[in-house]
Design a protein that fits this description.
The chain is mostly beta strands. It is built from 3 helices and 20 strands. About 10% of the residues have low confidence.
């Protein structure tokens, strides 16, 4: 089995063993763990040397056959996983994806420039969006994603994945992160090891922004930070202090917005952390 801890439902186990025993020659080994719903992260293992595709999109595997992929907020009701062996023979499996109903969250008191940016800021916003997109496209063989993820800090959840945001009465894009409230200066630690691919102190919407890549396209993004403690290219270990909570960018108060991606696919950190209690209160670093 995969070297990860994960609580699995009885229905998942039944589906898993049914798929395993009927997979055929091209899928001698296929293990899957995770949440088959919109925003879910799926970890797995296949016979080493086999190739995988999710709805026609390549899924990188390690030398040992481990892999990860994600299901977006608007993932269809069914997805297909194709497994191809060294001879080119392929088996396909279709999986049901639970559809979610997202909440609406009204946020007032936001600076109006962050609701309707003036024309002179649009070029800056596009440049910054391009930076973050590029930072999430790293595709390498590191296996940091196999670690059992931990919470980056402790605090009340104030915002959830998929919420349709209405700022000062104006509808805007949905929220694709998990908001955790904490005082400015609270320490943020790496939920798993990885490589820093973006470290920007002042992006227009997200303020202090940090992207930590865990390998195979899985990354964590931390935004609204008051201070960044690492630099692009740094290798960080799980539990290492990497930043401090702030109230920068489009916010109404201090909190951490933790986001996860599989390349350009936006994922829900809450599903990954389901059943894992938060640690004791996170310490502060700054004296602010």
């Amino acid at each position: 089995m995969i070297n990860r801890r994960c609580s699995l439902s009885l229905s998942w186990l039944i589906a898993f063993f049914a798929a395993w025993w009927t997979a055929g020659a091209a899928a001698e080994l296929l293990e899957l763990e995770g949440q088959w719903q919109q925003g879910g992260i799926i970890f797995g293992k296949v016979t080493p040397g086999y190739e995988l595709q999710l709805d026609g999109r390549r899924v990188r595997t390690t030398d040992g056959g481990e892999f990860v992929f994600g299901l977006g907020a608007d993932a269809p009701r069914q997805v297909t996983l194709a497994v191809r062996d060294a001879t080119g023979r392929a088996e396909t499996r279709t999986y049901e994806v639970k559809q979610r109903k997202y909440n609406e969250q009204r946020v007032n008191g936001v600076e109006q420039k962050h609701v309707t940016p003036p024309p002179e800021l649009l070029a800056r916003i596009e440049r910054e969006n391009a930076l973050t997109r590029k930072a999430r496209l790293l595709d390498d063989e590191r296996r940091d994603f196999l670690q059992d993820f931990i919470w980056p800090l402790s605090g009340p959840i104030t915002g959830v994945y998929g919420s349709r945001r209405v700022f000062n009465g104006v509808p805007r894009s949905p929220h694709y992160g998990l908001d955790i409230a904490a005082p400015t200066g609270t320490r943020v630690v790496a939920p798993a090891a990885g490589l820093i691919t973006l470290a920007e102190p002042d992006l227009f919407y997200s303020g202090g922004t940090l992207i930590l890549d865990h390998g195979h396209g899985l990354s964590s993004t931390f935004i609204h930070l008051s201070k960044i403690l690492v630099a692009v290219g740094d290798r960080v270990e799980q539990g290492q202090a990497i930043a401090e909570v702030g109230a920068t960018g489009r916010v109404t108060g201090p909190h951490l917005d933790w986001r996860m991606n599989w390349f350009d696919v936006r994922l829900d950190p809450a599903l990954l952390m389901e059943g894992k209690p938060m640690p004791a209160k996170s310490p502060r670093i700054s004296k602010e």
